[in-house]
TrEMBL record:
Record keywords, A-Z: Cell membrane, Membrane, Transferase, Transmembrane, Transmembrane helix
Protein name per the record: DUF2029 domain-containing protein
Transmembrane domains' residue ranges: 12-36, 111-130, 142-175, 187-209, 216-240, 280-301
Localization terms from the record: Cell membrane
Recorded family membership: Belongs to the glycosyltransferase 87 family.
Source lineage: Bacteria, Bacillati, Chloroflexota, Thermoflexia, Thermoflexales
Main location: membrane
One cellular component (GO) term of this entry: plasma membrane
Topology with respect to the bilayer: Multi-pass membrane protein
GO MF, one example: hexosyltransferase activity
Length: 409
């Protein structure tokens, strides 16, 4: 973004932009400090590295044997351990297979390389976001891009070495391809997002309800290919064991790094509301919410759409927001994904009559200060309510604006 563009925005907007920029640069500084202090072994990347190391050393058939994982992880950490003895590898088999070349390096060097690759993805995403907003006003463009860059979810995902940024970029590419009518590419990008499988559920449902069969076919074919390659290398039984591990993880409370009370989805809200002893209620109500979300998707996409339709962003915003809120598993770092429904809903408002009303102005103000609200809440109050409340607001807004549109027709 050019300096001449920044000079055209109001002074208060330039101040907020500077705060956003300072936060974004500060996040990178904190990550560098963590590397300098040798604290990165505590990150989620250790679990990814454990899975990759087992595949690299020919133990892929035991990838989801938690005892074997715990033993290998302690060896990697030199006798140290995480949580109650293991931070387990819970991603699909093909992810461990793809990451296995990193296991030729030490944990520290592998994490450093992964951090560089993740940063390049993030910079590429922000660059495309600048191009995507080129028709907007200077203030809207600068503050939108800087607010996304300042989201604390970037710090959490970057510091922990998770797949959140990868997932966000893949889902963004899915949207961009679908918007331009390139359905085959959209299906491929959605398959790439399946490194974080739960993030693909609601977008895939959107393809079904919207009858985008080519995109759906490419997505499913790509998934079958990934399953086939990993099964051929690691053995077909690894997928049965993976599904069993996922089932146990979905029911887990307070063990092996799974803490529903810290989650930023419906399950997290229920766990904080009902308390840690109401496991069955929390899991049951979360499953009910997921089922209701599937029905809501049918309502959201029941009318035909075209990629150039101005209403497309509203529907996809609701899809991404429901996917984040109703997913069975969403840690604080996954809150970065709220950028997707937020961006798309703002794009919808930019083109809709509502964009110039009080609704549009209120959305702009909340979105601009959201990174600072989230950061203050997380570190000053130690709570995790801003992201789920934000996703609830986006879901409600997507359906509300849809009903207003139908009334005008």
């Amino acid at each position: 973004m050019r300096l001449s563009t920044l000079s055209r925005i109001p002074q208060i907007s330039r101040l907020v932009f500077a705060v956003h920029l300072g936060l974004a640069l500060g996040y990178i500084g904190l990550v560098l400090m963590a590397f300098a202090r040798g604290e990165t072994w505590r990150a989620d990347f250790t679990a990814h590295y454990t899975g990759a190391r087992m595949v690299w050393e020919g133990q892929g058939a035991m990838l989801y044997n938690l005892k074997a994982q715990a033993q290998r992880q302690r060896e990697i950490l030199g006798g140290r351990y995480l949580y109650d003895g293991l931070l387990p590898y819970h991603h699909p088999p093909f992810v461990a297979l793809a990451l296995s070349p990193l296991a030729a390096m030490s944990l520290r060097d592998a994490f450093a390389l992964w951090a560089v690759l993740t940063l390049l993805l993030w910079v590429g995403f922000l660059g495309d976001l600048i191009r995507w907003t080129r028709s907007w006003s200077a203030a809207a463009r600068a503050l939108t891009v800087s607010a996304v860059a300042a989201l604390p979810g970037f710090l959490f995902s970057f510091l922990l070495g998770t797949f959140t940024i990868w997932t966000l970029v893949a889902l963004w590419a899915f949207y961009r391809a679908l918007r331009e009518g390139r359905e085959g590419w959209a299906g491929l990008f959605l398959a790439l997002a399946s490194a974080h499988p739960q993030a693909t559920l609601f977008p895939a449902l959107g393809l079904i309800f919207a009858r985008r069969w080519k995109a759906l076919a490419v997505f499913l074919a790509s998934g079958v290919l990934l399953i086939g390659i990993s099964a051929a290398v690691l053995g077909s039984a690894v997928w049965i064991e993976y599904l069993a591990v996922l089932g146990r993880a979905a029911m887990a409370f307070g063990r092996q790094g799974i803490d529903p009370e810290a989650m930023i989805n419906l399950k997290g809200l229920l766990a904080r509301l009902l308390g840690p002893t109401r496991h069955a209620w929390v899991n049951g109500l979360s499953a009910l919410g997921l089922a209701l979300g599937v029905l809501a998707m049918g309502m959201l996409w029941r009318r035909p759409w075209r990629g150039e339709d101005g209403d497309f962003e509203r529907r996809l915003s609701g899809t991404f927001a429901m996917g984040l809120f109703l997913t069975p598993h969403a840690n604080p770092q996954d809150g970065l994904l709220i950028a997707l429904p937020g961006l798309l809903f703002y794009r919808f408002l930019q083109a809709a009559p509502e964009g110039g009303t009080r609704t549009g102005r209120t959305f702009e103000r909340v979105a601009v200060i959201f990174p600072m609200l989230w950061l203050a809440e997380r570190f000053a109050l130690g709570s995790n309510e801003s992201v789920p409340l934000g996703t609830i607001a986006l879901i409600a807004a997507a359906f509300w604006m849809g009903s207003l549109r139908r009334e005008r027709l």
